[in-house]
Amino acid sequence: MEKKIITLLTDFGYADYYTAAVKGKIFSQLPDINIVDISHDVKTFNYREAAFILSNCYNFFPEGTIHIVGVNSEARQNTPHILVKCEGQYFICADNGILPIVLCDKDVEIYEIDYTRKSDVLTFPTMDVFAEIAILIASGGDYQQYLNKIDHYHNHYVMLQPIVGEQIQGHVLFVDSYRNLITNITKKIFYDFVKDSPFVIFVGSRSHTINKVSKTYSDVNTLDMLAIFGSHGYLEIALNRANAADLLGLSETITPTIVVELVRRF
């Protein structure tokens, strides 16, 4: 029998018992299960950050993988718990806007989870609901008895898009553990705009500029700033062997902080 995989993506951090409790519950019923920690360092309730992380890794997992997303997971009137099937994988989450971002262009099946028929103790839904459904799926149990098929998400959000006109105005989507700034400017948007023309990238207050895209971080000297397209496909601003986010005073934002302009020739 193929060994099942359950992934965990939460905002629990590592100081509390929450992650261990969820894992313990799963292992107590599925001792041979493979649990993969995607991250537990998502900022509290930050669905955009959770969506960015999940969207850049879920497609590397095999069919049958069960993803538990324990970020902003409380069920409310317009934010039920859901299970989404997509490309042979399972996603268990609150309907809080994360999965529409992650699976925005995919064919999906969406189900509301009604687990209150079994338990009214739902104060820790990642363990009390999500882990229980994941265990049933992984063990071949009848999880479908707790599902009601629906035809749409209740909360349908999208990632902030860059503004493209005479310039590209981009936002910082995510700051990784190296404190690199990952923007919402995709490689396609960038090169469709720039084509073969010289350009300048203004960072933050426009006092920092970059006029080329590097292939590796070591293409520039230590502590120098660079622009690069990572495996995620977005324009990234970094300092070679240094902390870009803190030194530049930038973080995730809904206001444009990265501007790409063409060099005008007169």
Largest sheet features = 7 strands, mixed
| Domain module count | 2
Task: Name the shape in a single word.
Answer: elongated
Strand order of the largest sheet: 2-1-3-5-4-6-7
Chain-wise SSE layout:
Layout: E1 5-10, H1 18-29, E2 34-39, H2 47-55, E3 66-70, E4 81-86, E5 89-94, H3 98-102, E6 109-113, H4 125-139, E7 147-150, E8 163-164, E9 168-170, E10 172-175, E11 181-186, H5 187-194, E12 199-203, E13 208-210, E14 225-229, E15 234-239, H6 244-248, E16 258-262
Parallel strand pairs: 1-2, 1-3, 3-5
Antiparallel strand pairs: 4-5, 4-6, 6-7, 8-9, 9-16, 10-11, 11-15, 12-13, 12-16, 14-15
Keywords:
Rossmann fold, 266 residues, Elongation Factor Tu (Ef-tu), domain 3, 2 domains, 5-stranded antiparallel beta sheet, 6 helices, alpha+beta, elongated, single chain
Structure write-up:
The structure is a single chain. This protein has 266 residues and is of the alpha+beta class. The protein folds into two domains: 5-150, S-adenosyl-l-methionine hydroxide adenosyltransferase, N-terminal (Rossmann fold), CATH 3.40.50; 163-262, Bacterial fluorinating enzyme like (Elongation Factor Tu (Ef-tu), domain 3). Helix content is 20%, strand content 29%. It has six helices and 16 strands. It has helices at 18-29, 47-55, 98-102, 125-139, 187-194, 244-248, and strands spanning 5-10, 34-39, 66-70, 81-86, 89-94, 109-113, 147-150, 163-164, 168-170, 172-175, 181-186, 199-203, 208-210, 225-229, 234-239, 258-262. The strands form three sheets. It has a seven-stranded mixed sheet with strand order 2-1-3-5-4-6-7, sandwiched between helices. A five-stranded antiparallel sheet has the order 8-9-16-12-13, with helices on one face. Helix 1 runs parallel beside helix 4. The longest helix is centred in the middle third of the chain and has 15 residues, at 125-139. It is elongated and about 65 Å long. The N and C termini lie far apart (69 Å). The mean pLDDT is 91.
